[in-house]
Amino acid sequence: MNIKKNITNITERIKNATKLYARSPDTVKLLAVSKTKPLTMIQDAYTAGQRDFGENYLQDALPKIETLSADPNYNDIIWHFIGSIQSNKTKTIAENFSWVHGVDRLKIARRLGEQRPAELGNINICIQVNSSKEKSKSGVTLQELPQLISEIRDLPGVSLRGLMTIPANSTLTTPESSSVIEKQRKPFRELHKALEQINNNSTHASGSTETDLDTLSMGMSGDLEAAIAEGATIVRVGTDIFGIRETNNR
After folding, report:
1. 123-128 and 158-164 beta bridge pairing
2. Is residue 12 part of a domain?
3. How confident is the model at residue 155 (pLDDT cuts 50, 70, 90)?
4. For a pLDDT cut of 90, what percent of the chain falls above it?
5. DSSP notation for the chain
6. In this structure, are residues 141 and 135 in contact, taking their beta carbons and an 8 Å threshold?
7. What is the CATH number of the domain that holds 71?
8. Domain count of the chain?
């Protein structure tokens, strides 16, 4: 598999989408979802210029992180945890990752902040929103979102950066179709509107405006164009970089 070529292709898709929707290419970050993939593939992606990597299985991620952290040639990798989080895993995540994309409970956010080593600075978190209202998916509803944001925003040890979602139509894989893109855009549009409303309404107790949330983590291999059209700042791409992921025994 030619990882470098795949990253080039994805980068070109991002560039074309930002041009089409009148955005600057540097406003969208590519997060390479390397979960279940071997260390060699991450190294190939790094050589191709990729720096942000997403993992959601700790048993797979930790050996990779430990190996690359010990090598000064890879000291600028940024690790993102993108899966649902159990309470007994928060300490390990807080110690090894810079970003967490799947927070949907105050308890998890509080534990991440409390267990974050001070020398690493705050851990960046995105709240996961269940934009498709699927019972099988984690995430808060748009109605529950303002309350959770108000509870998390001033927690020590965490920096609340924005919102994340995995809508039901993210499995569609024909981004060249305008009708498909329009269908895909709807949940992303709702999330973007929610973020704008939160930023417009949020104030500190003192009355001063809070720091705006600046991150929309949304869009994957099959729907990144639609996500970029609706303001995505991070697109999470796995399959179109590393191939179909392994799912056995997960």
Report:
1. parallel
2. yes
3. very high
4. 78
5. --HHHHHHHHHHHHHHHHHHTT--GGG-EEEEE-TT--HHHHHHHHHTT--EEEE--HHHHHHHHHHHHT-GGGTT-EEEE-S---GGGHHHHHHH-SEEEEE--HHHHHHHHHTS-GGG-PEEEEEEB-TT--TTS--B-TTTHHHHHHHHTT-TTEEEEEEE---GGGG---TT-HHHHHHHHHHHHHHHHHHHHHHHH-B-TTSPBPPPP-EEE---TTTHHHHHHTT-SEEEE-HHHH-SPP-TT-
6. no
7. 3.20.20.10
8. 1
Residue 246 lies in a domain: no
Query: In the prediction, which pLDDT does 83 show?
Result: 84
Domain-embedded: residue 249: no
Residue 69: how many other CB atoms lie within 10 Å: 13
Domain of residue 39: give its range: 3-202+211-237
pLDDT for the residue 136: 62
Residue 250 lies in a domain: no
Residue type, 150: S
Q: List, in order, residues 6 or more apart from 162 with CB less than 8 Å away.
A: 126, 127, 195, 213, 214, 215, 216, 217, 233
Confidence tier at 1 by pLDDT (50, 70, 90):
confident
